[in-house]
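Write out structure tokens for Alanine--tRNA ligase.
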Amino acid sequence: MVQFKNVFTGQEARNYTKATTSQKSLRAGGKHNDLENVGYTARHHTFFEMLGNFSFGDYFKEEAIYHTWTLLTQEFAIAKEKLYVTVYHTDEEAASYWKKIANLSDNRIIRIKTNDNFWSMGDIGPCGPCSEVFYDHGDHIKGGLPGTREQDGDRFIEIWNMVFMQFEQLDANTRIELPNKSIDTGMGLERISAVMQNVHDNYEIDLFKEIIDYTEHIVKVKAEGNAQFSYRVIADHLRACAFLISDGIIPSNEGRGYVLRRIMRRSIRHAHILGSTEPLMHRLLPKLVELMGNAYPELKRAEDFISNILEQEELRFKLTLERGLKLLDEELIHAQPNSFLSGEVAFKLYDTYGFPIDLTEEILKNKQVSIELESFNNKMQEQKERARKSWKGSNEAKTDKIWFELHATFGSTEFLGYTLNQLEGKVLALIKSNTLVNSVERLKDKFLLISNQTPFYGEAGGQMGDIGFIRTANCTIKVIDTLKYIGGIIAHVCILERGEGIKIGDNADFTIDVQYRQNLKIHHSATHILHAVLHQTLGKHVTQKGSLVAHDRLRFDISHMSSLTEEQIILIEEKVNQIIRENSKVTTTLMSTQDAIQSGAVALFGEKYDSEVRVVSMGSNVINGKAYSLELCGGTHVTRTGDIGVFKIISEYAIAAGIRRIEAVCGEFVLKLMKHNDSILDNLSSILKTNRDVLTDKVKELVSSKKELTEQIMALQISMLDLDEKQIILDSLEISGIKLIYKLVKNIDNKILRLSAEQISNKCNDLVIVYINKASKLSVTVAVSKEIINKVHAGNLAKSISIFLGGSGGGGQANIAQAGGVDTSKINLLPNKIKDLLTDLMNLSLQ
Ligand code: ATP
Ligand code: MG
């Protein structure tokens, strides 16, 4: 017994030298594995109760044999003729005590040469010869004495094993005598019960009979023939699973969690064989708790938890079990005894349908077919490689390495959020600042948390990640986003809100924000309907170029050359809403990618799909009876289209050549939008002091009166410039045959100056007008009559004036231009400067 190892060698002392135990034992993996015996023999369980007595340097061989014999033959009153014993072939001492104490004849003391009768914990450590007691269940049962070829039969059943711990193995070649010789024994409670209850078979003892009867009552198939075999497996595995889960182990794809999953899936298959369509195991649990809950209160304490896990796992495996079995049946139609199942098929069963390899082996056993294990293992290796290669990379070598490591160690995270909003999961890894850490303790710290399973959807396929809470007895963690990494690892983006912190190995309650998820769902399902409607209204050329499903809006990019017309948008909106109102059921089916595409499901070009895909369908299409929308999709969806409520497009625009983006909102967000629009209208009504119905007329009126007023103001301002045309000509300066009007004004709208200058220059010949407007800055307006623009370019002149006034130049057309200036001190010099400039220009044009 492992926990006493150092006591046997004397390294550790306890305040007692003798002990008796009752131990929960599990033999379903590692050194002891009886999983595949369960159901086939009368004596094996995965989980059983082992009774033992121990001596640590106290009593030894003689006394141990004496106690065993006395208990069996006197206390339990088992007939001596029914018992046989074995000893290790060199252990004369043990043989002589059996003779002396039990008075057994030589043919009842069987000497065994093999390691079956020499116990050791490993390559080194305490060890010693064994002596076992066998019970003869009678010659009507097949089987031979230990050491014979028929020893594995169920006639002679080992009920008790004693280990005489007298040596210590130091290395491969050195074995020393232990100073304090010890005793370690084990007797299976179920096997001794069978003897005491006068039944041959462990599965006929009271406890198992009650479980099997109860199951029979629920399943309603007689527990006889082949069915009996399934009943036994179910009863045994129910115990094993319940006890493992009560110890905090939950099904997963690694370590102890996988030992549990293998047992669970084996029993689920047998429930399936018995024809049970609904999950069965969790319905049997109350009976087990009734029978064993008093002796093991942990079963009572964890009953709800166990029940939940049993049901979840069964629901999940049921999804793929039947199709996996079908595949296997097809493969086996022509299989001959002693042939092999290809490793590829075994891998597909494992990878796609969740069949643990030993489950496939068990199914094949009856047909005498084995698995090509080598090619199976190669496939497993290839899968790891593929995952590594398909990882696009986060461009951060350090983080990439972490995800590879996590994927190699734990595989992908189980996403259970299609059916569950809340579950118990186990923390497998924590990442803070791109580094794996064992725990997170500081409040407000941000980190990533990876668990074996989760209801949180990791951002993928356009759908954003979930938010929610992760809680343990010691802390509350807020999940602000959920991401998906290589090979399907789901990482919760967390902030430690309250409590002492979290560490690897903690069990926690994972709860998503249900309302947030519901909003993600409605926007996702609406996206599918929109996609189908776009196909129908715009044409088959429309393909999805991108999609975003957030909780408060959706965005859908399509390939389409022109912008959508107002009528098209209204039509699309109406059709989407019509399908929503049909309120048809949204169904999700798992199928092979090939079948899915054949059924007409829309697959995205260039997207990689697993060999098994989810196909989401919604809406009924009257024309060909098929679903209106049929898409391959891993996202989460509403139950009925009516759940979406209402759909409203809020914008449509181009994001690249030939790609249009449609943005829309659904459900309560349409209401929000309406409220927002309402309040705008209300504000307008109150500002304009009118009711909504006449708002449009009122605004039209305002716009036209504004236009009128602007025109009036302009006219007024022009008149204020005091520029009578005749007067202008009189005021103009003659320079080299052209007329110049120069005017300095203050704070006049430049637009008006431009208008005025343009008007006058159009009416008069050979005229150059220059306005300098003095406002917060200086501005220059130059206009030139058409006949002379080849001599005086308004733009160039404005530029020269602007530079003279410290401005940056600017320019404009040949007949009208505006520019700026800053230096007011130059204004006095300006008239002469302009004259000079014009003179130069005219001289130039004469040359
Ligand atoms: P067997 O050869 O029948 O499998 P074992 O040699 O594996 O038995 P031990 O390892 O000596 O058994 O275990 C000690 C005792 O525990 C056994 O004598 C038996 O009473 C009980 N026991 C062992 N394995 C199982 C099992 N799978 N189910 C029920 N009881 C068991
Ligand atoms: Mg065994």
